[in-house]
Write a structure and sequence with these properties.
The chain is α/β, with parallel strands linked by helices and 414 residues long. It is 45% helix and 13% strand. It contains 16 helices and 15 strands. The protein has helices at 2-7, 9-23, 37-43, 65-82, 94-105, 131-135, 152-162, 180-190, 202-206, 243-254, 260-273, 276-298, 324-333, 361-365, 370-385, 390-405, and strands spanning 26-27, 54-55, 58-59, 86-88, 111-115, 137-141, 166-169, 193-197, 219-223, 234-238, 302-303, 312-316, 336-337, 339-341, 355-359. It has a 7-stranded mixed beta sheet with strand order 4-10-9-8-7-5-6, sandwiched between helices. A 4-stranded antiparallel beta sheet has the order 11-12-15-14. Strand 2 and strand 3 form a beta hairpin. Helix 4 (65-82) packs parallel to helix 11 (260-273) and helix 12 packs parallel to helix 15. The longest helix has 23 residues, at 276-298. 49% of the residues are buried. Bound molecules: pyridoxal-5'-phosphate. Pyridoxal-5'-phosphate binds at residues 31, 93-95, 98, 122, 124, 170-172, 197, 199-200, 223, 234.
Length: 414
């Protein structure tokens, strides 16, 4: 990076500090991952120079020969990866992708139904202060208090009562599998469009570790940067009959020029996800999450739903007597990055919730396996027991640094 270090030493210096943080810390935020060097090269490529409003073969500016090629390649690979009829790879990120679906398929004021934010849903699924909540009549379903699971009979009752035009399945903080077939039955019964938002689990689906929603859903949105391990971005997949509405909603409905450098990087990431190694990766994410969960339970942690089927774990720290925010800050000192999180029926506020959320996509990319998960669970346990003891927290960080040296982050030389 000599151009950056010579041209802008200030930004370069900050970047080097972040590189050090990523290399020597344990990354457990379940929405984060490490993109490959190939994905980053495409993201940082000269495709960033181009403008290409419109779609392949139907652009508004000249010079589109190669942009069209790379966008078509991304679309073809996404179709193969997820077995879908139509793909739009232009959404800038997950939130704009969801917004485009609503804009394309609904009228303002229509009823939509998603999982409540504090039960594991996403802000774009109907949080009252979000664009989704302000524009639509949002009905939120919940997880069961006793089990932490989504009760499909309760979802069905709510759907019959409110007759939503759109039902959303797919979450931000739900550690279990999703019953796509049941959601399809309910959507058919009330005449709703069924949307899957697989932002978190796209990599698990692409790698065959989780069932695909493609046979059941009308529309599927996903980010490309979480378990799918691509560049920061998103895409919308849908049945052919919704293709025109979706494409028009993305452009010119909501966005201007697509980020062609990101499109190129999406093509690279989809290519990587089509390789056999990605199946192993997806399976290992789940094995690692189960190993981490098991050890945390042995160490006295109370996990929402009692464990995990996917890449993430939600722990309620009430029995440990430590609020989520205090835990997050202590773990930062110890070199473990995760986020505080509300738990279902949380008596505390979202800024100071009862839980923490953690996940295994990033550590699995580094090549860590079950034995390392046991170590991480024990470090978390020890850090929380010693959350007021800075010396002890820094000692844990020293041990973590030693482990990290054996598990390099793609693109970072240490
Ligand atoms: C992360 C996430 C999104 C939004 O993605 P951004 O790229 O952050 O806008 C949408 N839906 C779900 C379920 C998510 O977890």
């Amino acid at each position: 990076m000599s151009a950056l270090s010579n041209g802008d030493p200030k930004v370069y210096d900050i970047l080097k500090k972040e590189e050090n943080r990523q290399a020597y810390g344990i990354e457990l935020i379940p929405s984060e991952n490490y993109a490959s060097e190939a994905v980053m090269e495409a993201t940082g490529s000269i495709f960033t120079n181009k403008y290409s409003e419109g779609y392949p073969g139907k652009r508004y500016y000249g010079g589109q020969e190669y942009v069209d090629m790379v966008e078509r390649l991304a679309i073809e690979r996404a179709k193969e990866l997820f077995g879908v009829e139509h793909v739009n790879v232009q959404p800038y990120s997950g939130s704009p992708a969801n917004t485009a679906v609503y804009f394309g398929l609904l009228e303002y004021g229509d009823t939509i139904m998603g999982l409540k934010l504090d039960h594991g849903g996403h802000i774009t699924h109907g949080l009252p202060i979000s664009f989704s909540g302000k524009s639509f009549n949002c009905v939120g379903y919940e997880v069961e208090k006793e089990t932490g699971l989504i009760n499909m009979d309760a979802v069905r009752e709510l759907a019959i009562q409110h007759k939503p035009k759109l039902i959303i399945a797919g979450y931000t903080a739900y550690p279990r599998k999703i019953e796509w077939a049941k959601f399809r039955e309910i959507a058919d019964e009330v005449g709703a469009i069924l949307m899957a938002d697989i932002a978190h689990i796209a990599g698990l689906i692409a790698g065959g570790a989780h069932e695909s929603p493609a046979p059941y859903c009308d529309v599927i949105t996903t980010t490309t940067h979480k378990t799918l391990r691509g560049p920061r971005g998103a895409m919308i997949m849908c049945k052919e009959k919704y293709a025109k509405q979706i494409d028009r909603a993305v452009f010119p409905g909501l966005q201007g020029g697509p980020h062609d450098n990101t499109t190129a990087a999406k093509a690279v990431a989809f290519g990587e996800a089509l390789r056999p190694e990605f199946k192993e990766y997806a399976a290992q994410i789940v094995k690692n999450a189960k190993a981490l969960a098991e050890r945390l339970i042995e160490n006295g942690f109370n996990l929402v739903s009692g464990g995990t089927d996917n890449h993430l774990i939600l722990a309620d720290l009430t029995n440990k007597g430590i609020p989520g925010k205090v835990a997050q800050e202590a773990l930062d000192e110890a070199g473990i990055t995760l986020n505080k999180n509300t738990v279902p029926f949380d008596p505390r506020s979202p800024f100071d919730p009862s839980g923490i959320r953690m996940g295994t996509p990033a550590v699995t990319t580094r090549g860590m396996k079950e034995p390392e998960m046991v170590k991480i669970a024990d470090w978390i346990t020890s850090a929380l027991e010693n959350h007021e003891n800075l010396d002890q927290l820094h000692k844990i960080h020293d041990e973590i640094k030693k482990l990290c040296k054996n598990f390099p982050v793609p693109g970072i030389k240490i």
